Amino acid sequence: MRSKGKGKKKSQPENERTDIIEKIDMNNDRLFAYYRAQKIVPAQEWEEFVESLRQHLPTTFRVAGSRQTANTLSALIEDIHVPALSDVVFEDLKIPPPVQITWYPDGLAWQFNVPKKVLRKSPEFKKFHSFLVFETEVGNISRQEAVSMIPPLFLEVEPHQKVMDMCAAPGSKTAQILEALHARDTVTSSSIPSGLLIANDSDSKRTHLLIHQSARLPSPALMVTNLDASNYPSIRVPVTRGGKSEFVPLRFDRILCDVPCSGDGTIRKNMGIWKSWQPMDGNGLHSLQVRILLRAMKMLNDDGRIVYSTCSLNPVENEAVVAEALNLSPAFELVDVSSQHAQLKRRPGLTSWRATGDKTCLRTFESYEEFLASSLDEGVKGKLSAGHWPPTNAQALHLHRCMRIYPHLQDTGGFFVAVLQKKVPLDQINGRDRKREASKSPEPADVKRPRLETHVLQAATFDNGNTETSSNDEQPIDVINNHPSKSRPPMLDGVFKENPYTYLGHNDAIVQSCIRELQITSAFPVHNILVRNPDGAAAKSLYISNDIVKTIIVNNSYERLRLTSAGTKVFAKQEVGKGSEAQFRVLGEGLPVVLPYLKAEAIIIANISSLHIFLESPYPLCTRFDNDFQQKIEVRSIGSHVVRFVAETNDDASLTHDLILPIWRSKISLALMIDKKSKSALSLRVFSRDITSTLSSSRDVIS
Ligand SMILES: C[S@@+](CC[C@H](N)C(=O)[O-])C[C@H]1O[C@@H](n2cnc3c(N)ncnc32)[C@H](O)[C@@H]1O
Fold first, then answer.
1. ipTM over cut 0.90
2. 175 lines ligand 1 (CB under 6 A)
3. Pairing with 353, which of 30, 330, 536, 539 sits 20 to 30 Å away (CA)?
4. Which residues pair with 310 in a beta bridge?
5. CA–CA distance, 605 with 658 (Å, rounded to integer)
6. Rounded to two decimals, what is the model's pTM?
7. How many structural domains compose the chain?
8. Is residue 640, in this structure, part of any structural domain at all?
9. What end-to-end distance do the CA atoms of the chain give, in Å?
10. Is 226's C-beta closer than 6 angstroms to any atom of ligand 1?
11. Is 168's C-beta closer than 6 angstroms to any atom of ligand 1?
12. Active site positions, annotated
């Protein structure tokens, strides 16, 4: 299963890896027989298709779209790195430079295909490689398979939308969605989007990976949950209707179902699949995939959109899942997206395919009936259902509107994407369908959708308890149980050990000291500051969420949601040495959120020479800076401050836009409060070399 990273043994050195196989061994009779039977490509393309599976997959990466640095970085790659890499000859071979992926918007995705040896030994590529490594570490670049970038493009997320990423870990698509939510961020500061992203994964270890990844784009709009997506509980939110407050299930505008799959589309990367592939991998996942998609359909807004995707080529995990879900939820249809992202080469979804339980794949079956009548083992017969086969209405379902991406089309992995939406409002579908819908849907057809309250209702007479029945079928919209029954959180892969979330009051002493010391204006949403402990006691870190995240947290049990992370860290405790009381400082990752609320006089203006000094030394003495900066800093108190380094280009350096960073002032020295890797990345970008000291600063005690 792709989700378990099958076939890839990351920790082993290359010469010990068992999944690196010779081209001659890149054969699997079962796989070939199965896919020939599916006619996934025309017969005359078969050899080209199979040969493409045996080719080394190019390295692809994305410049993070909404980041301050996106344009700078793109220009840097285009204007500096590409020319520097254009004439590289290695062992008499001309090595091609990176190229932009044509179908990705704004030229923000790139690919190159060079042997590892070249990356290690060619000085030009070595330099480019370390640039990529640093920028990846700080979140400005995301290494991501080209095909994996496709689903979020078709999701078309806007900053105000409520989005659910049902199977999100390790989080490459989550990052893209976050970037779309933050599309209005400016060069130097982050807007707080009114929308929401819930990134969920049933594997708790992988949710932590997800949190780590998404920390690269800190967002007050993000929540991470650790639940089985096929059984995702209703989240209740307060609404006001007819002057009365009540609770309704939260509906999403966009849902991504990037479901667990057999992953055979990744065979160019996960070469273990050449040996292990067999048809039961996909057969076994079909039912879970259907249930996840059905659950998404239940949680979608009437005018919402679902993207279902897999990195498998198997119709049983793709068209069969979509067809079964559409037949079970006839209010939905496939969206024709053939004219969107037209440069992306694709093939239409299949309308006929042949499933099998025969491990050799020598026999495949046209229909479930034929399969049942076969001489195959009865045990195997029990493992497949009619849903594994094309339904009789396959054409009517417009399955050709699904997208199949094949490796030979544009030198990528294999992928499948389907875009679904509700056909028409419920009150417009014919009587028969309406009746059937009404029995399934929680909402009466003629009820106008109520407005979600953006503030937390006083009706927080509700505690954080579970308000649902044990089933996740949503209840009628106005009959949500107001009397919570304390049910235990579902046991997935272990006890849920996360800390609860507590919002601090406006008058909280720590919040007030942060506001005072940092000169934050009264417009700052202090009511959305939270800590991770039960009683809001003095904490090491303060987080901020947006309104809708707060609404969800205050009105739902965090244990029931297995809420693993919410919002983003903005302030952290800073030890200042023995005998002195700890203070709080603004974090680099939180600064973009705080920045719009800083009083103008709070920001200290500095030049590029000061930046050089800050990067060169972890704790430069105040006296090392020029007179102008010294004077500005001398009048400041000991503690957390914010500096604006003004854009400037000279012979040695190029700072293309103003940079705003946190610093710490102690008695006689200063420190730039970003971590060592961010400093190195910044140094490479501005001074074209790493001038940073090997000592780190931001985590150390400052005396
Ligand atoms: C294909 S991967 C998702 C990749 C991810 N969307 C990305 O772009 O980085 C599928 C994920 O589904 C998770 N998963 C498996 N079964 C699940 C379930 N029942 N509910 C939620 N997540 C599940 C796996 O742990 C795995 O992380």
1. yes
2. no
3. 330
4. 416
5. 10
6. 0.86
7. 4
8. yes
9. 51
10. no
11. yes
12. 311
